[in-house]
Amino acid sequence: MADRCDDPLFGEVPDRVLLSDAPLVRVLGQVKFPKIIKVAEESYIADFQEAIRDEYPHFQSDMIQGVDIVINGNEVKPRQVTTVIWRFFDADRVLRVSLGPDAITLETASYVSRDDFLSRFEFILGKLVDTIRPKLVQRVGFRYVDRIQDSADVEALSDLVHPELLNVLQSGLVQHIDISMTEITGTTKEGKIIARYGLAPPNFSHDLEMAPPVGVKSWVLDVDSYSTNCEGRNFDTQMLCTELDKVAARAYAFFRWSVTEKFLERFGAK
User: Are strands 180-187 and 218-227 parallel, antiparallel or unpaired?
Assistant: First the structure.
């Protein structure tokens, strides 16, 4: 079995170990590009829908509320904005494609492998180039969310997770701790990484979209790896898939640095 990565931010990425029962909650890949305002119009994205409709036949739109900061001279004012996000789902509603004015996202709650995921994303990016024609790239990102929720596994966290991520939980007090969540942001060889991890109480979520709450105590590892090295480059499908593979590998390196050999064995290392 491949060794743990000693430097998860800049070191070599360990060989992938396939897990037959990986505790993945959700996996997401995203490419951001300069805003295309017309994407908010249903007629403008119709050709994109038609291009992917055989694979993603379900369609809906969501209105997302957000806040922009407006600077006028010395005055700073928040401004509420509404963004239309177009959603496309596969027949089983397992895969979801989200298209907004400045990003295309693929996510799944049933992850097979990185190669399978990138192949699907390559198809989507190709159709986006053919129809919407974004010109430039701003950044690419890949995000994995794992959750341990079996009570026996939660009690055995010190065997499954390295002490650097456990803090007070390694003291044997895990059954008495209600919540212990940590967030770090760091620089990586490819760009940046944001990791959120810790013990969550029942019916709690640090991110409702990525990790819907469950009715039991759980331990969560959410790793978001992204790169801006391709910022300003032409929107090229092959280049983007290469960059996505790199940031996904960096997220995997952090995951492997976080978990023990017993974790890999417990979740079906092949």
Answer: unpaired
In the chain, domain spans: 1-29+139-270, 35-135
> pLDDT digits over 28-56, tens only?
999 999 999 999 999 999 999 999 999 99
Residue with tokens 């969540």: 181
Look-up of token digits 């620089």: 187
Q: Which residues contact 17 (CB under 8 A, 6 or more apart)?
A: 1, 2, 256, 264, 269, 270
The residue to which tokens 């904005």 are assigned: 81
Residues in Cβ contact with 46 at an 8 Å cutoff, skipping those fewer than 6 apart: none
What's this model's pTM, rounded to 2 decimal places? 0.90
Structure tokens at 269: 């290392």
Rounded (10°) angle between helices 114-131 and 237-258 = 150
pLDDT of 228-246, one tens digit each?
889 999 999 999 999 999 9
Asked if residues 4 and 256 have their Cβ atoms less than 8 Å apart, the reply is yes
